[in-house]
């Protein structure tokens, strides 16, 4: 109750600030930059989540492998990227790999790692792949082993069983966690402004540096909130569509 009251007071304070400090000139002047930064944010998250989804499949299989060496490698990967801050991982890629410039130039990778945007995509992909691998592994394990046995009794191969029976059920279970992971990536993407990627937060920082008006950050927060709310409602809609048969 006390926490709710605190949030209510903060909300009223922000609303009062927006009313008293409203400056249409700032909004109209920097709206195109906000849109440009928002597009960079969407690209960064979309590419990272897509590549992370591809990478998460072998990692999830490795986590479930009976080979102890492979399972240990997959566990170490997941443990590291889930146990360390995304900011630290981004810094390790952007600043750390710069120490190996001669070696990277020798193998032709320096043109990739010298760009802040590519470094951000690389770090974000490795990070989200670890989380997605655990989501995928947990979703597959949530499907009862009896499904495998029943499919085998019907003469289906393991590939057919996975494609037609296990994965469709696992995706329903994984939808909500996948949605949460995308939302976390959107909010976490704000850190790339520190490595000179002009995403939504990067453009916000630049606008604030020129105006010293705190309103610029409030508008950024509103945009982030809008993105998250749209995504949350989209996930709810998809979940209702794919689980319609379960409610009959």
TrEMBL record:
Family listed: Belongs to the binding-protein-dependent transport system permease family. HisMQ subfamily.
Lineage per the UniProt record: Bacteria, Pseudomonadati, Pseudomonadota, Alphaproteobacteria, Hyphomicrobiales
UniProt cross-references to Pfam families, sorted A to Z: BPD_transp_1 (PF00528)
Domain ABC transmembrane type-1 positions: 38-235
GO cellular component entries: ATP-binding cassette (ABC) transporter complex
Range of residues in the leader sequence: none
The name this protein goes by in its record: Polar amino acid ABC transporter inner membrane subunit
Keywords: Cell inner membrane, Cell membrane, Membrane, Transmembrane, Transmembrane helix, Transport
Membrane topology listed for this record: Multi-pass membrane protein
Organism: Nitratireductor aquibiodomus RA22
Localization, UniProt: Cell inner membrane; Cell membrane
Chain ranges passing through the membrane: 37-61, 73-95, 115-133, 182-202, 214-231
PROSITE patterns in UniProt: ABC_TM1
Main location: membrane
Alphabetized InterPro entries for the sequence: AA_ABC_transptr_permease_3TM, ArtM/GltK/GlnP/TcyL/YhdX-like, MetI-like, MetI-like_sf
An annotated Gene Ontology molecular function: transmembrane transporter activity
GO biological process: amino acid transport
Keyword DNA-binding: no
Highest taxon above the source species: Bacteria
